[in-house]
UniProtKB/TrEMBL annotation:
GO terms, molecular function: oxidoreductase activity
Keyword field: Oxidoreductase
NCBIfam families documented for this protein: PRK07231.1 (NF005559)
Descriptive protein name: Short-chain dehydrogenase/reductase SDR
Sequence ranges assigned to domain Ketoreductase in this UniProt record: 15-198
Record-linked SMART domains: PKS_KR
Family: Belongs to the short-chain dehydrogenases/reductases (SDR) family.
Length: 262
Protein backbone atom coordinates (compact mmCIF):
# COMPACT_ATOMS: atom_id res chain seq x y z
CA UNK A 1 0.00 0.00 0.00
CA UNK A 2 1.29 3.47 -0.94
CA UNK A 3 1.74 5.57 2.22
CA UNK A 4 3.64 8.82 1.60
CA UNK A 5 5.77 9.89 4.53
CA UNK A 6 8.24 12.44 3.18
CA UNK A 7 6.63 15.80 2.47
CA UNK A 8 9.86 17.79 2.55
CA UNK A 9 11.27 19.44 -0.57
CA UNK A 10 9.25 20.31 -3.65
CA UNK A 11 5.69 19.14 -3.37
CA UNK A 12 5.33 17.48 -6.77
CA UNK A 13 8.90 16.46 -7.50
CA UNK A 14 9.15 13.96 -10.40
CA UNK A 15 5.38 13.75 -10.65
CA UNK A 16 3.36 14.08 -13.85
CA UNK A 17 0.35 16.35 -13.65
CA UNK A 18 -2.35 16.82 -16.30
CA UNK A 19 -4.27 20.10 -16.08
CA UNK A 20 -7.35 20.77 -18.24
CA UNK A 21 -8.35 24.28 -19.23
CA UNK A 22 -4.79 25.36 -18.48
CA UNK A 23 -4.53 28.16 -21.05
CA UNK A 24 -5.89 30.82 -18.73
CA UNK A 25 -7.16 31.79 -15.30
CA UNK A 26 -7.09 29.23 -12.52
CA UNK A 27 -5.80 26.46 -14.80
CA UNK A 28 -2.86 28.52 -15.98
CA UNK A 29 -1.86 29.51 -12.44
CA UNK A 30 -2.20 25.90 -11.36
CA UNK A 31 -0.04 24.59 -14.20
CA UNK A 32 2.67 27.14 -13.41
CA UNK A 33 2.55 26.44 -9.68
CA UNK A 34 2.76 22.67 -10.20
CA UNK A 35 5.80 23.21 -12.43
CA UNK A 36 7.45 25.36 -9.75
CA UNK A 37 6.83 22.49 -7.34
CA UNK A 38 8.80 20.07 -9.51
CA UNK A 39 6.08 18.50 -11.66
CA UNK A 40 6.23 17.64 -15.35
CA UNK A 41 3.08 19.46 -16.44
CA UNK A 42 0.80 18.40 -19.25
CA UNK A 43 -0.98 21.61 -20.25
CA UNK A 44 -4.25 20.95 -22.09
CA UNK A 45 -6.97 23.21 -23.47
CA UNK A 46 -9.14 23.90 -26.51
CA UNK A 47 -7.27 27.21 -26.78
CA UNK A 48 -4.18 25.93 -28.61
CA UNK A 49 -2.31 29.24 -28.80
CA UNK A 50 -2.91 30.07 -25.15
CA UNK A 51 -2.03 26.57 -24.01
CA UNK A 52 1.19 26.50 -26.04
CA UNK A 53 2.18 29.85 -24.53
CA UNK A 54 1.73 28.44 -21.03
CA UNK A 55 3.82 25.36 -21.84
CA UNK A 56 6.51 27.54 -23.49
CA UNK A 57 6.67 29.85 -20.47
CA UNK A 58 7.08 26.89 -18.11
CA UNK A 59 9.86 25.41 -20.25
CA UNK A 60 11.62 28.78 -20.51
CA UNK A 61 11.57 28.99 -16.71
CA UNK A 62 13.51 25.71 -16.58
CA UNK A 63 10.66 23.35 -15.68
CA UNK A 64 9.09 20.78 -17.99
CA UNK A 65 5.77 21.09 -19.80
CA UNK A 66 4.09 19.76 -22.91
CA UNK A 67 0.88 20.94 -24.54
CA UNK A 68 -1.97 18.83 -25.89
CA UNK A 69 -5.12 20.05 -27.62
CA UNK A 70 -7.88 18.58 -25.51
CA UNK A 71 -11.59 19.25 -25.53
CA UNK A 72 -12.79 17.67 -22.29
CA UNK A 73 -16.19 16.91 -23.80
CA UNK A 74 -14.52 14.49 -26.22
CA UNK A 75 -14.11 11.26 -24.30
CA UNK A 76 -12.03 9.53 -27.00
CA UNK A 77 -9.62 12.45 -27.16
CA UNK A 78 -9.34 12.55 -23.35
CA UNK A 79 -8.57 8.81 -23.27
CA UNK A 80 -5.97 9.17 -26.02
CA UNK A 81 -4.14 12.02 -24.24
CA UNK A 82 -4.22 10.33 -20.84
CA UNK A 83 -3.12 6.96 -22.26
CA UNK A 84 -0.19 8.57 -24.07
CA UNK A 85 0.87 10.53 -20.98
CA UNK A 86 0.50 7.55 -18.66
CA UNK A 87 2.44 5.27 -21.02
CA UNK A 88 5.22 7.83 -21.46
CA UNK A 89 5.64 9.12 -17.92
CA UNK A 90 3.02 7.67 -15.61
CA UNK A 91 0.14 9.81 -14.37
CA UNK A 92 0.28 11.01 -10.78
CA UNK A 93 -2.18 13.89 -10.72
CA UNK A 94 -5.19 14.88 -12.82
CA UNK A 95 -6.63 18.35 -12.34
CA UNK A 96 -10.03 18.66 -14.01
CA UNK A 97 -10.24 22.43 -14.16
CA UNK A 98 -11.83 23.24 -17.54
CA UNK A 99 -15.20 24.85 -17.16
CA UNK A 100 -17.66 27.25 -18.66
CA UNK A 101 -20.50 29.46 -17.49
CA UNK A 102 -23.81 30.60 -18.91
CA UNK A 103 -25.60 33.94 -19.04
CA UNK A 104 -27.46 34.90 -15.87
CA UNK A 105 -31.02 33.82 -16.58
CA UNK A 106 -33.87 32.07 -14.83
CA UNK A 107 -34.21 28.33 -15.40
CA UNK A 108 -37.13 28.69 -17.80
CA UNK A 109 -35.12 31.15 -19.91
CA UNK A 110 -32.24 28.71 -20.38
CA UNK A 111 -32.77 26.50 -23.41
CA UNK A 112 -31.94 22.81 -23.55
CA UNK A 113 -28.90 23.23 -25.77
CA UNK A 114 -27.28 25.70 -23.38
CA UNK A 115 -28.13 23.43 -20.44
CA UNK A 116 -26.55 20.48 -22.24
CA UNK A 117 -23.45 22.47 -23.17
CA UNK A 118 -22.85 23.48 -19.55
CA UNK A 119 -23.38 19.91 -18.37
CA UNK A 120 -21.13 18.55 -21.12
CA UNK A 121 -18.17 20.76 -20.28
CA UNK A 122 -18.49 21.14 -16.52
CA UNK A 123 -19.51 17.68 -15.36
CA UNK A 124 -19.23 15.22 -18.24
CA UNK A 125 -15.79 16.71 -18.92
CA UNK A 126 -14.77 15.79 -15.37
CA UNK A 127 -16.31 12.35 -15.80
CA UNK A 128 -14.35 11.83 -19.04
CA UNK A 129 -11.09 12.73 -17.33
CA UNK A 130 -11.72 10.43 -14.39
CA UNK A 131 -12.84 7.65 -16.74
CA UNK A 132 -9.55 7.92 -18.61
CA UNK A 133 -7.25 8.34 -15.60
CA UNK A 134 -8.63 5.91 -13.05
CA UNK A 135 -7.52 2.66 -14.74
CA UNK A 136 -3.93 3.93 -14.82
CA UNK A 137 -4.01 5.29 -11.27
CA UNK A 138 -5.59 2.13 -9.87
CA UNK A 139 -3.09 -0.07 -11.65
CA UNK A 140 -0.10 1.88 -10.37
CA UNK A 141 -1.61 2.01 -6.88
CA UNK A 142 -1.61 5.76 -6.38
CA UNK A 143 -2.96 8.94 -7.86
CA UNK A 144 -4.63 12.20 -6.94
CA UNK A 145 -7.56 13.77 -8.76
CA UNK A 146 -8.55 17.36 -8.06
CA UNK A 147 -11.76 18.56 -9.65
CA UNK A 148 -12.63 22.22 -9.79
CA UNK A 149 -16.16 22.80 -8.61
CA UNK A 150 -17.50 26.12 -7.42
CA UNK A 151 -19.44 27.73 -4.63
CA UNK A 152 -22.27 26.59 -6.90
CA UNK A 153 -21.32 23.03 -5.89
CA UNK A 154 -22.64 23.75 -2.38
CA UNK A 155 -25.02 26.67 -2.94
CA UNK A 156 -27.86 26.93 -5.45
CA UNK A 157 -27.10 30.22 -7.17
CA UNK A 158 -30.06 32.18 -8.59
CA UNK A 159 -30.02 32.57 -12.37
CA UNK A 160 -27.25 29.96 -12.51
CA UNK A 161 -29.38 26.79 -12.48
CA UNK A 162 -27.48 24.82 -15.13
CA UNK A 163 -24.10 25.84 -13.71
CA UNK A 164 -25.26 24.93 -10.18
CA UNK A 165 -26.58 21.57 -11.38
CA UNK A 166 -23.30 20.79 -13.09
CA UNK A 167 -21.04 21.94 -10.27
CA UNK A 168 -23.14 20.13 -7.66
CA UNK A 169 -22.62 17.03 -9.78
CA UNK A 170 -18.85 17.56 -9.75
CA UNK A 171 -18.77 17.54 -5.94
CA UNK A 172 -20.78 14.35 -5.56
CA UNK A 173 -19.06 12.59 -8.47
CA UNK A 174 -15.77 13.32 -6.70
CA UNK A 175 -17.07 11.82 -3.44
CA UNK A 176 -18.14 8.67 -5.28
CA UNK A 177 -14.72 8.35 -6.89
CA UNK A 178 -13.01 8.84 -3.52
CA UNK A 179 -15.08 6.00 -2.05
CA UNK A 180 -14.57 3.73 -5.05
CA UNK A 181 -10.90 4.33 -5.80
CA UNK A 182 -9.60 4.83 -2.26
CA UNK A 183 -8.85 1.11 -1.81
CA UNK A 184 -6.47 1.43 -4.78
CA UNK A 185 -4.55 4.33 -3.19
CA UNK A 186 -6.27 6.96 -5.29
CA UNK A 187 -7.56 10.19 -3.72
CA UNK A 188 -10.16 12.53 -5.22
CA UNK A 189 -11.11 15.98 -3.99
CA UNK A 190 -12.95 19.09 -5.14
CA UNK A 191 -11.93 22.72 -4.80
CA UNK A 192 -14.94 25.04 -4.60
CA UNK A 193 -13.84 28.60 -5.41
CA UNK A 194 -15.80 31.77 -4.84
CA UNK A 195 -15.69 34.49 -7.48
CA UNK A 196 -12.19 34.64 -8.89
CA UNK A 197 -10.64 37.27 -11.12
CA UNK A 198 -10.46 35.46 -14.48
CA UNK A 199 -11.86 35.85 -17.99
CA UNK A 200 -14.83 33.70 -16.91
CA UNK A 201 -15.71 36.30 -14.31
CA UNK A 202 -15.19 39.09 -16.86
CA UNK A 203 -17.72 37.38 -19.15
CA UNK A 204 -20.15 37.09 -16.24
CA UNK A 205 -19.78 40.75 -15.30
CA UNK A 206 -20.00 41.90 -18.92
CA UNK A 207 -23.71 41.06 -18.85
CA UNK A 208 -24.32 43.80 -16.29
CA UNK A 209 -25.10 47.41 -17.22
CA UNK A 210 -22.13 48.61 -15.19
CA UNK A 211 -19.61 45.75 -14.89
CA UNK A 212 -17.15 47.70 -12.72
CA UNK A 213 -19.83 48.64 -10.24
CA UNK A 214 -21.15 45.05 -10.27
CA UNK A 215 -17.64 43.83 -9.45
CA UNK A 216 -17.36 46.26 -6.52
CA UNK A 217 -20.75 45.21 -5.17
CA UNK A 218 -19.79 41.56 -5.52
CA UNK A 219 -16.52 42.10 -3.69
CA UNK A 220 -18.30 43.98 -0.89
CA UNK A 221 -20.36 40.85 -0.14
CA UNK A 222 -17.20 38.95 0.76
CA UNK A 223 -15.92 39.26 4.35
CA UNK A 224 -12.44 39.88 2.92
CA UNK A 225 -13.97 42.65 0.78
CA UNK A 226 -12.40 41.38 -2.43
CA UNK A 227 -12.58 38.62 -5.00
CA UNK A 228 -10.03 35.78 -5.19
CA UNK A 229 -6.92 35.89 -7.34
CA UNK A 230 -6.43 32.75 -9.49
CA UNK A 231 -3.19 32.04 -7.60
CA UNK A 232 -5.18 31.74 -4.37
CA UNK A 233 -7.24 28.93 -5.89
CA UNK A 234 -4.14 27.30 -7.40
CA UNK A 235 -2.54 26.94 -3.95
CA UNK A 236 -5.61 25.07 -2.69
CA UNK A 237 -5.51 22.78 -5.73
CA UNK A 238 -1.80 22.16 -5.18
CA UNK A 239 -2.41 21.22 -1.55
CA UNK A 240 -5.02 18.62 -2.47
CA UNK A 241 -2.94 17.32 -5.38
CA UNK A 242 0.17 16.82 -3.27
CA UNK A 243 1.14 14.36 -0.56
CA UNK A 244 0.56 17.12 2.00
CA UNK A 245 -3.07 16.05 1.67
CA UNK A 246 -2.23 12.34 1.79
CA UNK A 247 -5.18 11.52 4.09
CA UNK A 248 -7.64 13.97 2.53
CA UNK A 249 -10.09 12.39 0.11
CA UNK A 250 -13.70 13.00 -0.87
CA UNK A 251 -13.39 16.53 0.45
CA UNK A 252 -14.89 19.71 -0.97
CA UNK A 253 -12.53 22.53 -0.05
CA UNK A 254 -14.39 25.84 -0.14
CA UNK A 255 -12.07 28.72 -1.01
CA UNK A 256 -14.35 31.74 -0.83
CA UNK A 257 -12.90 34.24 1.62
CA UNK A 258 -15.65 33.33 4.09
CA UNK A 259 -18.57 34.20 1.76
CA UNK A 260 -20.58 31.05 2.38
CA UNK A 261 -20.21 31.20 6.16
CA UNK A 262 -22.14 34.42 6.69
P1 LIG B 1 -11.13 30.81 -17.62
O1 LIG B 1 -12.16 31.13 -18.64
O2 LIG B 1 -10.06 31.80 -17.35
O3 LIG B 1 -10.43 29.41 -17.98
C1 LIG B 1 -11.17 28.32 -18.41
C2 LIG B 1 -10.33 27.56 -19.41
O4 LIG B 1 -11.06 26.38 -19.77
C3 LIG B 1 -10.05 28.35 -20.70
O5 LIG B 1 -8.69 28.32 -21.02
C4 LIG B 1 -10.90 27.63 -21.73
O6 LIG B 1 -10.34 27.67 -23.04
C5 LIG B 1 -10.92 26.22 -21.17
N1 LIG B 1 -12.04 25.43 -21.67
C6 LIG B 1 -13.33 25.80 -21.84
N2 LIG B 1 -14.04 24.79 -22.37
C7 LIG B 1 -13.18 23.75 -22.54
C8 LIG B 1 -13.31 22.44 -23.03
N3 LIG B 1 -14.47 21.99 -23.50
N4 LIG B 1 -12.23 21.64 -23.03
C9 LIG B 1 -11.03 22.10 -22.58
N5 LIG B 1 -10.84 23.33 -22.12
C10 LIG B 1 -11.91 24.15 -22.10
O7 LIG B 1 -11.97 30.48 -16.32
P2 LIG B 1 -11.55 30.15 -14.81
O8 LIG B 1 -12.28 31.10 -13.98
O9 LIG B 1 -10.10 30.03 -14.68
O10 LIG B 1 -12.25 28.73 -14.65
C11 LIG B 1 -11.57 27.56 -14.24
C12 LIG B 1 -12.53 26.71 -13.44
O11 LIG B 1 -12.87 27.39 -12.23
C13 LIG B 1 -13.86 26.39 -14.14
O12 LIG B 1 -14.20 25.05 -13.89
C14 LIG B 1 -14.83 27.34 -13.45
O13 LIG B 1 -16.15 26.87 -13.51
C15 LIG B 1 -14.27 27.34 -12.05
N6 LIG B 1 -14.69 28.46 -11.22
C16 LIG B 1 -14.39 29.75 -11.57
C17 LIG B 1 -14.82 30.78 -10.78
C18 LIG B 1 -14.56 32.22 -11.11
O14 LIG B 1 -15.15 33.10 -10.48
N7 LIG B 1 -13.67 32.52 -12.04
C19 LIG B 1 -15.58 30.54 -9.53
C20 LIG B 1 -15.82 29.15 -9.27
C21 LIG B 1 -15.38 28.16 -10.09
Amino acid sequence: MYVPTDTSGMRLENETVVVTGAASGIGRETAELCAEEGARVVVTDIDSDGGRDVADDINEDGSEAVFYDLDVTDSDQFHAVVDEVADSYGLDVLINNAGTGHPSASLEELDDSLRDFVIDVNVKGVWNGCHAALPHMKEQGHGSIVNVGSLASVLGLPKQAAYSMAKGGVLNLTRAIAAEAGPYGVRANTVCPGFTDTQLLEQYLAQRDDPERAREEMAAEYPLQRLAEPAEIATAILFLASDEASFVSGHGLIVDGGFSTC
